[in-house]
Design goal:
Helix content is 36%, strand content 29%. The chain is α+β, with helices and mostly antiparallel strands. The chain has one domain: PH-domain like. The chain has a four-stranded antiparallel β-sheet with strand order 1-2-3-4. The chain has a three-stranded antiparallel β-sheet with strand order 5-6-7, with no helix packed on it. The longest helix is centred in the first third of the chain and has 18 residues. The chain is elongated, with a radius of gyration of 18 Å.
Length: 132
């Protein structure tokens, strides 16, 4: 089993944090603590979503765990190509920059490994026919 570290981009954190932290203004200025009843669970939920993303290579499969939304298992022999992308579509890729699209037999998926070269080398060990 090989764990592939996930890249969590600062831009994603900012895009999520600003709207979530905006209600703090009312907590401090109006002494209104009701927004905290929404804010704290929202922060916990978003943290679970982001921290629950993982990528693993087990045997000949790439397993992409998408937090509470389940897992995608891709046989590495089915992967045809991997290319860098800036596609902002929702995916198990908690980074806007450094995303890659994996095109395989039954579709495609976007992920964001922390170390692209290490990820690439691990895939090529199993399937040298993948194009990058």
């Amino acid at each position: 089993m090989k764990n592939i570290p996930v890249k969590i981009g600062w831009e994603t954190i900012i895009l999520i944090a600003v709207p979530l932290l905006f209600p703090l203004y009312f907590v401090f200025t109006d002494k209104d603590y009701i927004p905290l009843t929404i804010l704290i669970p929202a922060i916990i939920f978003v943290s679970i979503l982001i921290m629950g993303i993982s990528y693993r290579i087990i045997g000949n499969e790439l397993i992409i765990r998408n937090s509470i939304f389940g897992s995608t298992r891709i046989p590495i022999s089915d992967i045809r190509s991997v290319k860098k992308t800036k596609n902002p579509i929702s995916s198990p890729a908690p980074s806007i920059f450094g995303r890659i699209e994996i095109i395989y037999k039954n579709g495609s998926i976007i992920i964001s490994p922390k170390d692209f070269d290490m990820f690439k080398n691990e895939l090529l060990k199993i399937n040298p026919n993948i194009t990058f």
